[in-house]
Amino acid sequence: MSFQPEHEIHRRRFSRNLGVGLALLAFIGLVFALTVVKVTRGTSMQGYDHVVQPEMAPVEGTQ
Amino acid sequence: MTDIRSVDVPREAGFGDFVQLLKPRVMSLVVFTALVGLLVAPNNLHPIEAFAAILFIALGAGASGALNMWWDADIDAVMRRTQSRPVPSGMVQPGEALAVGLALSGLSVVMLWLTANAVAAGLLAFTIFFYAVVYSMWLKRLTPQNIVIGGAAGAFPPMIGWVCATGSVSLEAVLMFMLIFVWTPPHFWALALFMKEDYSNAGVPMLTVTHGRKSTRAHIMAYTVMLTPFAIGTAFTSVGGPVYLAVATVLSAEFLRGAYRIWRRDEIVAEADKYKVEKAVFRFSLLYLFLLFGALLAEAALRPYGLGGW
Asked: Sign of the C-alpha dihedral, residues B1, B5, B7, B13?
């Protein structure tokens, strides 16, 4: 028993699937690279942990 | 036993047909002008941010191309130059073109926002809207000034590139916009003079058909004259300099000379030499824009060595 030779339509479908797959992979890579750049260059980032942050308290006399 | 080869399947698109939907040749011009806009700006983006910004601007331009092909499939099927585009040739279904166009529009705008800033993303969204709705759907089939209006859509990329880096629109960005905006009509009308596409059959009012070829020649001259102050004027802004001024002066003089020759000719002379001058001016106009933006880039590249600018 032998398989049917591949029809042209399957080649087109494969080209499409491969193209979309590679495009998605490239997109993931780009978003990751952008994230690394944005985070490492990020200025004045602040994590909200359980530490007193005096600079966030309202200044007396302004309210 | 079924044999797929005996079934008459509809033609199915490969990946390349979807790439064609994005008008890759137009995209290459968008990439170049947006890149120049981004690189000549005073603020510098990180190379990866710059790369991503240009990619998403190009993707947005491609999306508007797909929307244009969806809407204009009826025109494209009539004209020789566009018959083999993916939708009229039956490779891509109209609904697929619409879906690709809308999906990529949304993706490119959101991603440009995240990559650069909201103003740049807003400009990209407006460009897509302008090209797909204002130009393709509304004015293209209504007025012989359609080329002028379509040119505005093509003029936005360097401005968006500039805004990606600086966050706001400035005089330099507006001048780069005007360069492409005023350059497009003479460039395209020179093509229309010798291509003789059957626009009237397709129902597109082309200036050569509605106002005649003599009037089109005068229009080419008028727009080239209007273009010159913008080309020269850019030299005296922060992106210009002596190199740009020299290049812009020489190019403008040559473009004006070509436009003048087109203006002074009539159809009999043009027919006799097979539109030699019109073809030459069309080719030169491409070189003109490329070298003008290239000169801006040269000024920016020379700046770190104290040579660019005034």
From this structure: positive
